[in-house]
Design a protein that fits this description.
Strand content: under 5%
Shape: elongated
Largest sheet: none
Radius of gyration: 23 Å
Number of domains: 2
Number of strands: 0
């Protein structure tokens, strides 16, 4: 019975967190299929490779100490943070080459998805190991659901944010940002694991995670609001060019765009999608090197044509 309960306790909270992170990316929401790919990488691929990497690194550390207690402690504070954060982050390098992955918010969403997937599978394995005692099982479910798995989410999301920040930087800055992001993710993981290594410091770990969650929420909200500003700025230029009516700018760059009535309902969602894509492609073009601009220029032209067609259709219906 506790096996089924463990599966539910592992899957439901992490999937709920995933939906929240995806949903609150209000202005340029990522394709949910991409988000799920990251989630499943964390849940399956990252878990398998973490086991392999941890086995190899633990084998190396066994040459340093023969004490089982010391080896377990080194595994907690060194092996787990280094191997797990590195392996979780690998998939983000496959995602960042996608045109849709273009800023810090995207990195937070995709990285958070990887971390949540990893936390889900790890939680399930931990819950199974405590299934012999209901009280111990309930305690570990609470701690891991609200703290350990959340740590995995925030650590990899942090790395993802640095990857997003680095996307359009020159090579030297790109390497520096990605390295800093990985070290920061490892440090978050290390501090959480280190605090749990001693009963006297465990409460500091819970305080640390509480502060980390608040900081993550602030950064995420700030990043989402920066997307709103991007849409407003770029579409204001389009209004000056005559692509978009100026009266639509405030609506398209706010949550009012989800309301009915400001434009024909039959085109509203497509109009929002094309206008948002246009805004971000324009920003990407400004950050892109000359030899890589053509696909973005073509996409901008295509989105302008789509918008013109939608507005013409809307005008014909009036």
């Amino acid at each position: 019975m506790l096996v089924l309960a463990s599966a539910i306790a592992a899957f439901v909270p992490m999937s709920t967190y995933l939906l929240f992170i995806w949903y609150f990316d209000f202005y340029d929401r990522e394709p949910f299929g991409f988000v799920l790919q990251n989630y499943f990488w964390g849940a399956l691929g990252a878990i398998v490779f973490s086991f392999i990497g941890s086995f190899l690194l633990t084998g190396l550390l066994s040459n340093v100490t023969t004490s089982a207690a010391q080896l377990n402690y080194l595994g907690l504070i060194i092996v787990a943070p280094v191997i797990e954060e590195t392996v979780k982050g690998i998939f983000l390098f496959l995602m960042v080459i996608q045109r849709k992955f273009d800023n810090v918010t995207d990195g937070l969403v995709y990285g958070g998805a990887v971390g949540l997937g990893f936390g889900m599978t790890e939680n399930f394995l931990y819950f199974l190991s405590y299934s012999g005692n209901i009280n111990d099982w309930m305690f570990i479910v609470i701690v891991r659901t609200f703290f350990s798995a959340v740590m995995h989410c925030i650590a990899t999301a942090t790395f993802g944010a640095f990857v997003g920040l680095a996307k359009y930087k020159e090579t030297r800055s790109k390497i520096l940002l990605i390295t800093t992001g990985l070290i920061t993710a490892i440090l978050i993981h290390f501090l959480w694991n280190f605090s749990l290594g001693f009963q006297t410091t465990a409460y500091l770990g819970f305080v640390f995670m509480g502060i980390t969650v608040v900081l993550f929420s602030v950064v995420f909200a700030s990043s989402v609001m920066s997307e709103r500003k991007i849409i407003f700025t770029e579409l204001t230029e389009e209004a000056e060019l005559g692509t978009i009516p100026s009266i639509h700018i405030d609506t398209l760059s706010s949550l009012k765009r989800n309301q009915k009535g400001w434009i024909n309902e039959s085109i509203r969602k497509n109009y929002i999608r094309s206008a948002t894509t246009l805004a971000f492609r324009k920003l990407q073009l400004k950050n892109m090197s000359i030899d890589k601009r053509l696909p973005y220029e073509n996409d901008i032209t295509e989105q302008r044509k789509i918008i013109a067609g939608l507005l013409t259709a809307d005008s014909d219906k009036k």
